[in-house]
Every structure is written in structure tokens, then in C-alpha cells.
Design brief:
Layout (H helix, E strand, L loop, with lengths): L4 H13 L7 H8 L3 H13 L3 E4 L5 E4 L8 H8 L26 H18 L3 H6 L1
Antiparallel strand pairs: 1-2
Helix pairs in contact: 1-2, 1-3, 1-4
Length: about 130
């Protein structure tokens, strides 16, 4: 897995919204050098995950719906990419001829699964507040 640009920009959106009551999409884009179409796509996913809240109307915009002390990189990344895996064979729906077929066990698959679990633990280790204040 590569941490996608969309995941990176989602953290930037949250950074822009931290410490302010509400921002328009244009303000977010200006602060974090993100294009508006990309920002809308990210905000829609963050809103669906209940990380941000959207407001309509003349004084509309977006605000954080959760405190930075409640959010971790894992939360943001999985809101953007729920099927985040370092390699496709770790997807439970992936049919791997090397793992499980004819009673075989792929030792590489087993090792990569452990690496994936460690990565998830590392992404959950610190809150965004801890990261942004260090």
C-alpha cells in the first residue's frame, strides 16, 4: 500500500479545520493547496465517516465533527480508503492460488499479514492532536 495523495490531503483538510469554527471549501483549498474538486471528494468521504460536518447556505462550509484528540491517522486513512492494504492478496476476497489452495500456506502471505497488522497499530498509536502539536 502506498499512502495515497487523497489520504495525505485528507489529513491536510483536517489540519486546515483544526482550531477554527468553520471554513469554506475555498478557504480549505487556499490554506492547504488542494484543488476544489479534490477537496469536495475528500470532504464527502470525511463527512460520511462522521469526521467533519458540512453546513449549507451562504454561511456554509465545513467544521471538524470530532476532536483531534479522538482522531488517529488510521481513522482518516480508512475513511478515505476503507480497503487499505499493503498488497492485494491480504484482501479476504482475493483468491490466491499460493495460499490455501491444495492445503498450501503461503509463508510470504503470513509475513505480509503480520506487517499489515503492525502498520495498522502504528497508524493508531498517536492522536492527530499529538502529531500536530509535536
Amino acid at each position: 500500500m502506498l499512502i495515497t495523495r487523497e489520504c495525505d490531503y485528507a489529513v491536510r483538510v483536517i489540519r486546515a479545520l483544526s482550531g477554527v469554527e468553520r471554513l469554506s471549501v475555498n478557504d480549505i483549498c487556499e490554506r492547504e493547496a488542494i484543488t476544489a474538486p479534490f477537496a469536495y471528494k475528500i470532504l464527502k468521504k470525511l463527512q460520511k465517516a462522521d469526521i467533519v460536518k458540512g453546513f449549507r447556505g451562504v454561511h456554509g462550509g465545513y467544521s471538524l465533527n470530532r476532536d483531534l484528540s479522538e482522531l488517529r491517522l488510521y481513522d482518516v486513512y480508512t475513511a478515505i480508503d476503507p480497503d487499505m492494504r499493503i498488497i492485494e492478496c491480504l484482501d479476504p476476497d482475493y483468491d490466491c492460488a499460493r495460499d490455501g489452495g491444495n492445503g498450501t500456506i503461503c509463508l510470504v502471505h503470513r509475513e505480509l499479514a503480520q506487517i499489515q497488522n503492525e502498520l495498522w497499530k502504528l497508524l493508531q498509536r498517536k492522536t492527530l492532536k499529538e502529531i500536530m502539536e509535536s
